[in-house]
Amino acid sequence: MNDFLNPSRPAPAVALTIAGSDSGGGAGIQADLKTFAALGVYGCSALTALTAQNTLGVQSVHSVPSTFVTAQLDSVLSDFSVRAIKTGMLADSATLRAVVKTLAHCADTPLVVDPVMVATSGDRLLDRDAETTLREQLLPRTDLLTPNLMEAAALLDEPLASDPAGLWRQAERLLALGPKAVLLKGGHGSGPLAQDLLLGPDFSEVFSRPRIDTRNSHGSGCTLSAAITAYLASGLNLSDAVRAAKDYVHRALVSAADWRLGRGSGPLNHGVAPLADPRRAPSGPVPRSVSSSHLHGEPLL
């Protein structure tokens, strides 16, 4: 792990997460800050909501007033040289508008948007007004949009994509909403490989890792977007940042596969050591250290 206590270590790059708090520690702000620290990046935060949450689910949500979200952002951005920003749970339309207004003053800072819209149960986490604000105001400011299959379907008001042609079509339609690039995540699909499609106006790339059948996957989407943000803050280009982040999440899942933290969907191991040179992250399927019985199904793409 990175040694923040080493007096000879130069000051780390700074990343900012704008998201909700997970009292269980597996997702949200907590996952983002753990990921930033593991990857050698100093993390700042602005909380949009408090959740009473554990491995079994979310029991209660308390939204932070949008004026206080703005105050947190102004406080951080006026003092720190933030190199990359990510958003997670944005709670409601007022918070979304406040975030968009503030981020207009740092248009050159890479923005990763993880559109936390749909819970694993299928329940929507944003109302229709907030979804409209997300599509019309935040996505045109976004450098990388990172939806899972359910969030992509919700953003487009379409059924879940069920085949490769449908995935590509939805990624293209998401790109048309304004982000500079889309990473459509296949982790909720089926097949022996978890495959994510990165699509931009003039490039595309598929990132693959063996699928892991584990109950400890809570917060994997937050962790992936946070890892991408950390690597962008550290100076990697988009393709290298996504590849290295995908590798980090894969190893975090593998190393936590046998954990028993809580009685439900447990967390990843955010403390796995990063690659010495993230630009050399594997570009395809890699050997796993857990039983092949964790693999199932047919390829997604």
What does this structure look like?
The structure is a single chain. With 301 residues, the chain is an alpha/beta fold. 32% of the residues lie in helices and 20% in strands. It has helices at residues 28-38, 66-77, 93-103, 128-138, 149-156, 164-175, 220-233, 238-255, and strands at residues 14-22, 42-54, 57-63, 82-87, 111-113, 144-145, 182-184, 193-200, 203-210. Strands 3-2-1-4-5-6 form a six-stranded mixed beta sheet. A hairpin with a 2-residue loop joins strand 8 and strand 9 (203-210). Helix 1 (28-38) crosses helix 7 (220-233), helix 3 (93-103) packs parallel to helix 4 (128-138) and helix 7 packs across helix 8 (238-255).
Which stretches are low in confidence, meaning pLDDT under 50 for 5 or more residues running? 286-301
Name the overall outline: globular
Residue share in β-strands: 15-25%
Q: Total number of helical segments?
A: 8
**Overall SS class:** alpha/beta
Could you give the order of strands across the largest sheet?
3-2-1-4-5-6
- The SSE string, one letter per element, is EHEEHEHEHEHHEEEHH
What share of residues is helical?
Answer: 25-40%
